[in-house]
Amino acid sequence: MTSLSRIRIGSAPDSWGVWFPDDPQQVPWQRFLDEVSASGYEWIELGPYGYLPTDPRVLGEETRRRDLKVSAGTVFTGLHRGPEVWDSTWEHVAGVAALTQAMGARHLVVIPAFWRDDKTGEVLEERTLTAGQWRDLTAQTERLAREVRERYGLQVVVHPHADTHVDTEENVTRFLDATDPDLVRLCLDTGHYAYCGGDSVKLIETYGERIGYLHLKQVDPAVLAEVRAQELPFGPAVARGVMCEPPTGVPALEPVLAAAQGLGVDLFAVVEQDMYPCEPDTPLPIARRTRAFLRSCGA
């Protein structure tokens, strides 16, 4: 077994079925913190802004007494929509970035906007970007990364995601080729990339210098085949169980972690098993088993 000494393992509210700042189907934030710590994780993400306390003094006290540290914050953006969305985007980003910085984290995960509603499947805009929209997306992402780095000392890592415009191998590589490597890195989510037909190991081997962060996730191939055949949006796909407990799905995480270790840089690898909605007693046993599995991989 190879020791994955450069990989720092964490988990996130997502693995407890948390998608929204406030939702009656989600576990209270105190329970998430208790259970993620009890599962053996040391690192967490903030999740949707407002789910965990946004006062850094309160959150700092709550995480410290559970021996937890924050690795990243997360924001959703629609930067392909042009300069007119900059001010509203920055207002949202600045709040999350300030809390992320205050918690001692160094990364900001940026998720592009969905082209269809992840619950209803309503088509919100065209599935394919125009050349002009690609230019806006890449230019404004660079601007965002520059501002976030200069003002908050954080590295932007863009998260390819199902039902967004940065999803498939073709779109991910187009995005990477059009952005400044010094400014823009990737949060490679192994599950989303597989969901959209990509090969995570190949991406790490080809664009290794752009990989700034990992989300560890697997898809159930049988459920994914149904999702594709029925053209289901992401929300109902998750409710059907398309994202599954490791190591039962794809991609195999051992070669992904080995490839990441081979880059020779320190990387966070945060477990995110999409489970919204789920019964409140479901996440903890899965989290414990997943952490034990990753230890067996050397992480």
Overview of the structural elements:
This protein has 299 residues and is α/β, with parallel strands linked by helices. It is built from 11 helices and 10 strands. The protein has helices at 29-38, 56-64, 86-102, 131-152, 169-177, 190-195, 200-206, 221-230, 234-239, 253-261, 283-296, and strands spanning 7-11, 43-45, 69-77, 107-112, 155-158, 185-189, 211-216, 218-219, 243-244, 267-271. The mean pLDDT is 97.
Question: In total, how many beta strands?
Answer: 10
Give the low-confidence spans: none
Main sheet summary: 8 strands, parallel, barrel
Strand order across the largest sheet? 1-2-3-4-5-6-7-10
Structural class: alpha/beta
Any idea what the radius of gyration is?
18 Å
Could you tell me the mean pLDDT?
97
Count, helices? 11
Q: Roughly how many Å apart are the termini?
A: 10 Å
- Global morphology: globular
Q: β content, as a range?
A: 15-25%
H/E element sequence:
EHEHEHEHEHEHHEEHHEHEH
- How much helix, percentage-wise, in residues? 25-40%
